[in-house]
Amino acid sequence: MSSSKPSVYITRRVPESGPALLAPSCQVEQWNKDDPVPREELLKRVQGKDALFCLLTEKIDEEVLKAAGPQLKVVGTMSVGYDHIDLTACKKYNVKVGFTPGVLTNAVAELTMALLLTTSRRLKEAMAAVANGTWGTWKPMWLCGPGLDGATVGIVGLGRIGFTIAQCLRPFGVAKILYSDKFENPHASEVGATYVSKDELLANSDFVLATCALTEETKGMFNKDLFKKMKKSAIFINTSRGGVVNQEDLYEALKSGEIGAAGLDVTTPEPLPTDSPLLTLDNCVVLPHIASATDKTRSAMSELTAKNILAALNGTEMPTEVKND
Ligand SMILES: O=C(O)[C@H](O)CO
């Protein structure tokens, strides 16, 4: 680094451990609030900065890169997903991109398991019954659900997170884990996962989990055609991005009984408006994008983002750089 300290703009209040790593060697400016920085403010504040520390809520496109100026060296996003960053524009402006894979894998797998259990064991309806007084006597046929024991689970996208979910599933006694992806995962056999076509996965799975990245190919992929191919009892879980689902089609599939239930940690848009039809359904559980929300994970994400930025500013290898060739 040159003698004058490089400047970094942080777009949100984030766990302090990340900014603390930057502070000794950088001039740090921060939008120190819990709500996103307004676009105009971002475009103003990023001017002249050497690095941008952002979140998945900020669209980082050519306009932002241009506003920053030619000295901008790196965009570090505090997320594993980077669908909010225009990689083509970053390449054009010679800006490196850092992200935070690995450190949030366990937390996201854990929350995916929570959604699986909440939907299959009908916890939303059960908790409502306790609260609203419709809990009568113990009834043998009441609030029964499919359970994981002996089930076939289909994972669409067996990357780090999908793989860890497969590990978590095994002690629950699932019979089969199927996965579909662009390529076979060479470690799949370690978790007993079998590579199949998407159609085979959809036709045979009791649970279908979306753990793929949002790309041009996966955008809106879970639509009425795919829901039709699932079992009528299938439970669909999404902890990737809301954009992989056609939400109108999902609503129809849940309402009409085309599929059994859904558990979503991600939606389009976020926050999901409170008048969304999805929220009227007993068989749909919606969470506010909290899969990585453990104290430890969010601190680790903040630190890794800072380390990516420092490495890029120092001209050393970034711990987790998005390959942008
Ligand atoms: O992309 C991510 O990192 C998650 O969606 C939020 O932690």
Polypeptide structure, described:
With 325 residues, the protein is α/β, with parallel strands linked by helices. It folds into 2 domains: 7-103 and 295-314, NAD(P)-binding Rossmann-like Domain (Rossmann fold); 105-286, Rossmann fold (3-Layer(aba) Sandwich), CATH 3.40.50. 32% of the residues lie in helices and 14% in strands. The chain is built from 11 helices and 12 strands. The protein has helices at 17-22, 39-45, 62-68, 87-92, 105-120, 123-132, 160-169, 198-204, 224-229, 247-256, 295-314; strands spanning 7-10, 27-30, 51-54, 74-77, 96-98, 152-156, 176-180, 193-195, 207-210, 235-238, 261-264, 284-286. The chain has a 7-stranded parallel beta sheet, with helices on both faces. It has a 5-stranded parallel beta sheet with strand order 2-1-3-4-5. Helix 2 packs parallel to helix 3 (62-68) and helix 5 (105-120) packs across helix 7. The longest helix is centred in the last third of the chain and has 20 residues, at 295-314. The chain is elongated. The mean pLDDT is 97. The structure holds (2R)-2,3-dihydroxypropanoic acid. Residues 9-322 form the D-isomer specific 2-hydroxyacid dehydrogenase catalytic domain. This is Glyoxylate reductase/hydroxypyruvate reductase. Residues 113-291 form the D-isomer specific 2-hydroxyacid dehydrogenase NAD-binding domain. Belongs to the D-isomer specific 2-hydroxyacid dehydrogenase family. It comes from Lottia gigantea.
